[in-house]
Specification:
The protein is an all-alpha fold. The chain has one domain. 82% of the residues lie in helices and 0% in strands. It has 4 helices and no strands. Helix 3 runs antiparallel to helix 4. The longest helix has 30 residues. It is elongated, with a radius of gyration of 21 Å.
Length: 96
């Protein structure tokens, strides 16, 4: 009887890993969409520094999702936005 219970529990959990992976992917996609929406809102209403910060958050979201191509593309955009922010504030941009 105990063996049947263990077997039944094992069969019920055999797909748990796939479900967890799917849930993690959904969370990653939601973080990316939210970060991009915040970046776009900063572009409409915020200043250059706000766009710089929001671009960094998009880079972090794509990096966490292990999307190399999008991480690189947003890193370039982040660099441009942060350069513009530094210039608008009269500060020297940090060197990479």
């Amino acid at each position: 009887m105990r063996g049947l219970a263990i077997l039944g529990l094992g069969l019920m959990c055999c797909g748990c890993g796939q479900v967890a992976d799917a849930q993690a992917k959904l969370v990653e996609n939601l973080r990316i969409r939210d970060a991009i929406a915040d970046y776009e809102a900063a572009g409409r209403t915020g200043g250059a520094l706000d766009r710089c910060v929001k671009a960094k958050l998009v880079v972090a979201a794509y990096s966490d999702a292990r999307d190399v191509a999008e991480t690189e593309a947003w890193t370039a955009r982040e660099h441009e936005d942060c350069q513009a922010a530094a210039t608008s504030l009269g500060a020297a941009a940090p060197t990479p």
